[in-house]
Amino acid sequence: MRKWTVPPFVLLLLLLILSSVPDQGRKLHVNAVDDSEELVDPPKVEEKIGAVPHGLSTDSDVAKREAESISRRSLRDNAEKFEFQAEVSRLMDILVNSLYSNKDVFLRELISNASDALDKIRFLSLTDKEILGEGDNTKLEIQVKLDKEKKILSIRDRGIGMTKEDLIKNLGTIAKSGTSAFVEKMQTSGDLSLIGQFGVGFYSVYLVADYVEVISKHNDDKQHVWESKADGAFAISEDTWNEPLGRGTEIRLHLREEAGEYMEESKLKDLVKKYSEFINFPINLWASKGIDVEVPANEDESTDEEESSDSSSSDEEDAEKSEDEDGEKKPKTKTIKETTYDWELLNDVKAIWLRSPKDVTDEEYTKFYHSLAKDFGDDKPMAWSHFTAEGDVEFKAVLFVPPRAPHDLYGSYYNSHKSNMKLFVRRVFISDEFDDLLPKYLNFLMGLLDSDTLPLNVSREMLQQHNSLKTIKKKLIRKALDMIRKLAEEDPDEIHDKDKKEDAEKSGDEEDEKKGQYTKFWNEFGKSIKLGIIEDATNRNRLAKLLRFESTKSDGKLTSLDHYISRMKPGQKDIFYITGANKEQMEKSPFLERLKKKNYEVILFTDPVDEYLMHYLMDYEDKKFQNVSKEGLKLGKDSKDKELKESFKELTKWWKTALASENVEDVKISNRLDNSPCIVVTSKYGWSANMERIMQSQTLTDANKQAYMRGKRVLEINPRHPIIKELRERVVKDPEEASVKQTAQLMYQTALMESGFLLTDPKEFASRIYDSVKTSLDISPEAAVDEEAEEEEEPESESENKESSNEDSQLKDEL
Fold it and tell me: What is the top-level taxon of the source organism (predicted)?
């Protein structure tokens, strides 16, 4: 038999083939496992893809998964689902279906939130430098990036980040108190620009996006993704597919079709310049830029290009010849436009408070106020003060008077610890929770303070004990009050001197802009000045100069105490005022009858806080205040006073006895009445009638405990009135006559009502009125009301019952 021999190279080839089979099987097995299981470890990020510096790059697998997620725009199956709180859903429903034209606010709110997150991490880093991490994590900045193909707008910060619990708490289930307040404001005014003032600015993303992802990494937790389609639900899952953030938050907005304008770089640049120019951290936009690049010219160029190259200038030909002669031939090149991308800084304006006030324009102050207050309406702040304090404590500060009062300024005045002052130490934002920088009555002011003398690791407790606080607070109050005083001085309506008024009218448009500004300020914040007079004894006189009110001679306009004093009559020692529910009622008050007749001016206080105010403001410029509804009113001496008192002595004594049950302390001859027969006044240091009414309307009032504060009542009678004269004659004839006693009681109760008091027994008063009517109509007091004729009630028929039931059902259906 013939023996076959196998060449050695064939055996080697077979061995290689067999050795490769198990490896291929293992690879197939690994791939199958990879396809069936989720990726556990985060994907590696390819560094500097396309030589893009600081780019937010992802590997191919990540890009594929993101594309699948974007195409679905649905919540991930493996995510934990949650329901929005009812108020949040209500707010989002308004925003999703919004027809408001100003949708630009979303970017402003997201950048503002990013800035807050960066402020927090920078503050924590003052005591723990390792909290910032290493590398890019130490760069405290905000990045804005566009993906035009996928219609995604991303805003990223390297702030403090959010844990899973933070994502649930801040973005879904626990609505801030401002949510309902903002919804109510939207339904009444529709002013969308106010959203930032209510703490619900994040939800403005649904003005432009129908699907939102929030990727966040906190140092104390893993990276998570919050996502929602604004359909009443949201989901949170651990993030194992996106690029690791290191620390911070990235918000991805999947824009609606109608929000395409926000895919333009120019639009985003304009919005950042408009709303976020003075944010304290750099805002960078991933922007495109065209550059000229020289590339080798293609040899197979078109005929036109050849012709154009042949028609080059003679100078160029000479240069080429000289180069050829030198033997240094250069290859032909052409210049083309190439698009590159890089981070572009959008807010390069220096912090406004570090600049000289002379170098800052009104427009810059207005923009800075809008950024500080998150109020992006068209109104300018009423006034501002930019100053530097030197001495033991050095600091720079900017204060603003807002154009309108916040919605909750006085709602929780004594319980709120809210402050509108931001504290910086050496340009580092520390906190906006130091409510001790300004007193409560000035908490409507917006502003910031930057000090070089306070320690960087300052806390609320440390600041309260720090020696510099009193000095800072004192200077801030003085500058704030000077700013408000200047606002009044520059208002042409506040000028009462004729010569000065004519000069102001000639000055033109600038004065027109300032006209009525202080009246506007008073209508918005006047109550704060009054509260300051009550609370701040040190600055009481300064605040009193800012006080405004209407009077019997102000013709419906506001006037000041200085102007009142300038109009006082010769010999007048007191400043007269009256308190009441409204101006019209007070102008008709019998307390003013004699004062008006003698041409005295009386201040009209209509605000409930005025009653408390006048307990603290006892005098001004050596003039005492006199409430004309209380005892102690002096209008000069009358030679006939003693004779009148003597002639009515019997009547006043009898009347006091008749009113013993009414707790009337005395009955006197009045010096304030002209047309009215009588009136009831209170003791000088007790409550007035208006104060009694205010206290009785309090929810938790205790009438028994407040009894000692009620003023003792005194009935004052007009000796010139015919009713009083006739009553005196009747009392002289028969002091026990029942009709005279009833008349005296009726007159007292009528005087109580006219003086502003509430009757303890209105039924008794009404009965006396009816008895008086009977007497005037000559009807016997014994006359009784006719008895009603009794009729048997007939049962309703079945048809009537059916008709009534049908009517009820129809009414229910309509409702």
Answer: Eukaryota
**Nearest C-alpha neighbor of 210 from the set 85, 74, 79:** 74
**What's the CA gap between 448 and 351, in Å, rounded?**
11
- Copy the structure tokens of residue 274: 């408009």
Residue 574 near residue 622, CB atoms below 8 Å = no
| Contact call for residues 75 and 233 (beta carbons, < 8 A) | yes
Q: Is the pTM of this model over 0.70?
A: no
- What pLDDT was estimated at residue 23? 44
d(CA 429, CA 51): 36
Distance of alpha carbon 664 from its chain centroid, rounded? 49
Report the b/e string of 420-452 with b at 16+ CB within 10 A.
bbbbbbeeebbbbebbbbbbbbbbbbbbbbbbe
Coil, helix or strand at residue 332? coil
C-alpha dihedral (626, 629, 631, 634), degrees to nearest 10: 50
Which residue did the predictor score with more confidence, 28 or 209?
Answer: 209
Q: Give the bridge partners for 449, in sequence order.
A: 397, 423
Task: Tell whether the model's pLDDT for residue 57 goes beyond 50.
Answer: no
Residue whose pair of structure tokens reads 């240069």 in the numeric block: 319
**Three-class HEC string of 383-394:** EEEEEEECCCCC
* Under 8 Å between Cβ of 223 and 250: no
CA 573 vs. chain centroid, Å, equals 44
Nearest to 285 by CA among 148, 144, 158: 144
Q: Decide which of 93 and 370 is more confident.
A: 370
Q: Is 410 helix (H, G, I), strand (E, B) or coil?
A: coil
Nearest to 58 by CA among 40, 39, 41, 45: 45
**Contact call for residues 181 and 408 (beta carbons, < 8 A):** yes
- CA separation for the pair 243, 222 (Å, rounded): 13
